[in-house]
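Q: How do we represent a protein-ligand complex in a form that can be generated token by token?
A: Start from the inputs.
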Amino acid sequence: MKKQLLLTLALTGLGILSANAQTKKISSSKSIDEKVNTLLSKMTLEEKVGQMTNLTLDAISKTDASGKILEPHEIDEQKLKEKILKYHIGSFQNVAGHAYSREHWYQIISAMQRVALQDRLKIPALYGIDAIHGVTYTLGSTLFPQEIAMAATFNPTLAYQEGEISAYETRASYIPWNFSPVLDVAKNQVWPRIYETFGEDPYLVKTMGAAIIKGYQGNNVGDKYHVTSTMKHFLGYGDPLSGKDRTPAWIPDRYMREYFLPPFIEAVKSGSRTLMVNSSEINGVPVHASKYLLTDVLRKELKFNGIVISDWMDVRYLHTRHHVAATEKDAVALAVNAGIDMCIVPYDYTFYNYLIQSVREGKVPMSRINESVRRILHVKYELGLFDHPVGNPDDYPKFGSNEFKAVSYKAAAEAITLLKNDNNILPLKKNIKVLVTGPAANTMRSIDGGWSYTWQGDQDDQYAADKNTILKAIQQKIGKENVTYEAGSGFDSLQDVNTAVEAAKKVDAVVLCLGESSYTENVGNIDDLDLPAAQIDLAKQMVKTGRPVILVMAEGRPRIITSIANLSAATVMAYIPGNEGANALADILFGDVNPSGKLPFTYPRHANALVNYYRKNIENGNPDDSHGYNPLYEFGYGLSYTAFKYSNLHLSKPDMRDNEMLTVTVDVTNIGSRKGKEAVLLYTSELYASITPDTKRLRAFNKISLQPGETKTVTFKLNTKDISFINDLSQRVTEPGKFKVQIGDQTHDFDYRTSTHYQPDTNGKL
Ligand code: BGC
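Then emit the structure tokens for the protein with beta-D-glucopyranose bound:
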């Protein structure tokens, strides 16, 4: 049976999203412009600078005598009135400690808007939150797999659906502004924010990022079910040299444009209305002080006209951490002149006072202030805040519904990646006895990760107590009486290993759950990518029992497991799969779901061999060199309980000429005995170029589903932009020469011939 698959994915587009999923380009509609100009003309400098100031919820919350936020949380009316009526603060964010009920969010946002509407110009306040995998800080919300797992699905429709549901639930929490998605290309596998990204490949990041933005924003960010997204963190945050958060990166302009900029270009095209800045420095310039990146590249080249918000305290840090401003006041002028529209201060009036002084002293032009305030007011109008400053509690009956949870489950089920399956040990039979062990086995912290109910996800076991850990999910799957649990080890030190060894001897198989607890940002910094010795020891002890060991990795970045990778009978990468993730994992382990995830990053073999899959040819090493590129698992790797055969890779023409489109087709056959999904990945390689070419680059993908014995022909379109690169003049060009297309084990060469170099965008730089 052979079906012609009509999916013809344009390589730079997102053809699989339904028509109504496409975001209407949010143009600066004339009526909004007029309203903004009228309002702006009435505003004092203080009112304008208030709009540019963003404070955290702590600043308007009641505290005890020692300054600790009161529990239960309460808004401090007096502080709120001072902030808004005296200082005209226009924007707030975050949570004062931990997640709240929808009802409590209603009280917070209503109080804030009530006071905002008492101010002279009645400008509604704008509240923002990190709803980065669902509404992080609202009790009962639908928490999705973290972005890294969403990327492993290779299914942009799921990212789009996650965006839609998260937007619905964010509005159900009365908040119209989401500090998501992370569009950082995760080049350094040590970085603690790898799990917040869509992985190491620019095309994958760009495609998943655009899909989730379209879900967040819908056709109208101002309706009651959509929010504005924040593309972050502009730019180059994903490649700190040391691997530690907010440490320097050295990224030449050419590389910046080749790897880091494309997801932001796509996000601007997708209509994202706000952008957050990278807290760190690139080539010695903190991005918050980079007029080049924030104005020349972002505004002039990308034509972004939304709000640029600083990251947390980062304007002050230009003085206190980066030492590029001699005083805090200089830091404020530097950042605003570079292009910052709004500053997450987030506790005090320093930014407000220094900015007013700087304008009065002529250090920041009034035109710069007007520009920022115009953008901020514009977004407030677009979000519908002037008409509906607070949503209606009755409008969100689907909040936390089973319908929404089913999408989170589906995403986890398509993300979890089978890395090894010796002798088809998986799926396990349901009538066996298993030991579930390891530090990740019985904690929701490894399932939800950071940004879950609290910033670090450290209270996840209390907040998500009604959700299944891996242990509970397996108990439900095969019956409690068939499951023994012993922790065996903590994340960093062995515990009761002997008890675990004895327990292993009495079962048919061991499900060993290793990895990481929850963390984010600098708290997640590590000095060593190796999985801690205690966990490796536990694995070795389990293997020694002679029982088959099913290694499950629940982790946000690829901790090195080389010393045990050959010892396990099977290895499953769970990533950080979200609230429904353990259920999906149990379904995969016991065969109710056929795994279809693929790695969105390179899984390194050694901690000192951190190379991305799109390495340069010289990194491949010589035949006599055993130190060349040799990861444990390649980007894009992932097994299934069935098998897929690729054949008949066909190109519509032997060569491509100026502006021509090449149609690439390949047949994919399910040659196993189970229905399965397969992400079909198309790579190209340029064999010779003026800048050393990457060994290969992902240019398109399409996830298909196949019945046993079924064949589908998958069609891709390849144009000259898809095979372009940034040359040594920082220009995007497609050079004539020989190229190779690779899909699965199939390859095909073609020539590109042209008289002129291809320069696709405005000034050729994008
Ligand atoms: C993070 C951002 C986040 C912000 C507000 C910062 O520390 O870097 O990603 O949006 O806090 O919570």
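The radius of gyration is 26 Å. The first strand starts at residue 2 and ends at 10.
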